[in-house]
Amino acid sequence: HFLVCYLINRKKMSLKSERRGIHVDQSELLCKKGCGYYGNPAWQGFCSKCWREEYHKARQKQIQEDWELAERLQREEEEAFASSQTSQGAQSLTFSKFEEKKTNEKTRKVTTVKKFFSASSRVGSKKAEIQEAKAPSPSINRQTSIETDRVSKEFIEFLKTFHKTGQEIYKQTKMFLEAMHYKRNLSTTWDSSCVQNNYKNLTKKKKKRKRMPPERVEKIMDQIEKYIMTRLYKYVFCPETTDDEKKDLAVQKRIRALHWVTPQMLCVPVNEEIPEVSDMVVKAITDIIEMDSKRVPRDKLACITKCSKHIFNAIKITKDEPASADDFLPTLIYIVLKGNPPRLQSNIQYITRFCNPSRLMSGEDGYYFTNLCCAVTFIEKLDAQSLNLSQEDFDRYMSGQTSPRKQESENWSPDACLGVKQMYKNLDLLSQLNERQERIMNEAKKLEKDLIDWTDGIAKKVQDIVEKCPLEIKPPNQSLAAIDSENVENDKLPPPLQPQVYAG
What is the model's pTM? Predict the structure, then answer.
């Protein structure tokens, strides 16, 4: 290789010398570093060995500068996040969640930059990989939130009561979290499978150990689920690799378009005019909205369960009898339409992926969660036939041209209190009853007239028939004498038969 480069350079120099008449010294063809080898103009006058060394030094310097820049950006992000947490602690929960998600996205970008500029050269690549594996994850060392710290302390205090078993559980859980942090950029399906397999393996171990009762195993698994999912929540809830956010926007848009749906259209057996029932409806809406603020799947299921129990109480007060399943599902659909819970599809997918399967397969939590999934599916496929409306009315309501509640709202003054609105409703009801009574009286009078006309018509027809065919009354005929009686008046009759005896 060096010989070829030398001959090519020598030939080029000789040609230039012949053309220009310039004498080229042999020292000009040597490497700039003075190693004794010939240099190459393509390598800025260095030989191949010196060029490789210079290039490696420049690359290592660039990597170090990029690494320092990435660390500085991360520190700035952490300081900004900590200051925002302190100064904006009284803001709404939705905005806090948005800020948390935004910070996670920025941190993920910084981590990606670090991985992109990490040392991966041929020299010392294995050593760098070993050091990177031993170093803790940046996400683990980041400043944890108050809720995460509180859950961690509760988990440790809970495991202290189990002594050696608690230490094993904590060690296994810690190893699982570290593995999830290192591989968190994989698909959501992989994350869900890992979490579910972890639940399954821990449950089997606890059941085999000293024949632990199922109640205690369930309590331990609840604490493990709470600790794990609180730490992983910001990475696995509504991740960028899925279309959960797109589905959330579609469901929100659909519910907003169905704002005109009334309880009567859904056959909801709930009378919100009753104060107790109205309070139950408000509590149910609050619980279904509060589901988005929880991190643990079990806590989200608890919100659904509380919402469902408020619905059952509202139906029971309205009907003065226990509610049935046929009454519950339409009312749940109405609550979802009226509340429009935030990130509904993301919460449903999160519960499905990361909740303990034993909780979803049995119990009231699983039953109420199944009904919620059915309610969302019904809302997505709701059409005119589902509401017993004509397609024309359904299209007009969906387009916003008119609303079934428009006429009712026009009758009320904007400043009217609840009593005045109730008075307007009662007057409207009395007016409808009056119209109904008048309609019934008119129909009764018409029926009476029809009966009189029918009676007169029948009497006239009978009279016409009698006049056309008069009735003739004839004297009765004399009664005939019996055949066996003595008939003196009529001698023409033969005498009675006499019995005769024949000799056999």
Answer: 0.54
